[in-house]
Amino acid sequence: MLDRTRRSIRRATTQHQPSARVVVWLVTAIAVVSIATGLLAIITQPSVDAGGTVGLLQSAAEFSGTVLGFALLVTAWGMRRGYRLAYLAAAALILLAAAHGVVQSRWLSVPLVILSIGGLVVLAFTSARFTRSSALTPTQMGSLVAIVGVGCYGIAGAYALRHEFSELHTVVDATYFTVVTASTVGYGDVHPTSEAGRLFAISLAILGPTTVAVAAGSLFGPGLQARLTRTGQRAAAHTREQTPHERVVVLGTAGPVSNVVAELASRKSSVLVVTADDENGAEQTTEDRTGETTVRIGDPTDEEVLESARLDEADAVLVATGEPAQDSYAVLLARDRTDARIVAITEDASAGALDRAGADVVLSPAQVLTNAAVDATLGAGENEGYSS
Length: 388
What we know:
Blueprint: H1 2-15, H2 20-43, H3 52-80, H4 84-104, H5 110-125, H6 138-160, H7 171-182, H8 195-240, E1 247-251, H9 257-266, E2 270-275, H10 278-287, E3 292-297, H11 303-308, E4 316-319, H12 324-337, E5 341-345, H13 351-357, E6 361-363, H14 365-377
Parallel strand pairs: 1-2, 1-4, 2-3, 4-5, 5-6
Helix pairs in contact: 2-3, 2-4, 2-5, 3-4, 4-5, 6-7, 6-8
């Protein structure tokens, strides 16, 4: 009973929060504004022109704000997939973006500061929207540590040997030398003047590209391989079958869902039915033995159940829980997890609420039958297949 009460409170709270899609678009907007502000800061003068450390921070903020913007675009992509790590990274980067806007001391950075503060407030209230695990493998974690280690090695070593290099005096110079050397750009404006400096530059030129290449392979290789595997499987399935093999997730078994699932299975669609009703689940399994149908017992509005249903891989989602409030909540949760077509079947006149929740199509069996009967009576359906 206590768990049910907590779940109800969580549902009510989540329904009044901005959707994940809105939050992703907000983060994207902050990213674009941060990039634009950084680019404009390079060609404009600050309203408070300072020297010393403050002046150095202003100069650094001119380009680092643009880098933050591109990093935010990456986190927005991760948030679109529902990753918790991307959400936390976005919060940290937006806080830095606001600080950059303040440090730049320009009127054109005011929109960035205001938008960033608003974004932090929205993120604080939408934490429950992003719960997907993004745990890194030991190999991937080791790759990230290696990149950070090489960067620290290059900066610390270059600064320690600054007297062995021309035009290298500060930590910023050491960072610049490390980046251009490790990335094999090598402008040549900072160059070693002794054997010790040359040996250090050689080690950095070897370690940098090697570490980046290995890290890129370990970080992006598994995802790319999985995507290529799925693409190959889909291509093979289309080659073997003339009829497209779509994956449909059905949330609930109310109304005419049994007939709909049976028809989908007969058309060679892969159907996953999520239902809290054990009897309906068993009946569904029995009726659809000829089709590729799987029944999963669980609450169609439970976030963990929906996560295990892999809605992001579905081609379509059908919602029919039989309860208007649950229908709306199920559509809302589904829309946060997929861009697939969402169809809701309801007996209640709640089409507006379902539309606002994110449903693409809302059907009322009673209304459909009424319209068909009226059209048939008035002769409007003679050419549309209503008459037998």
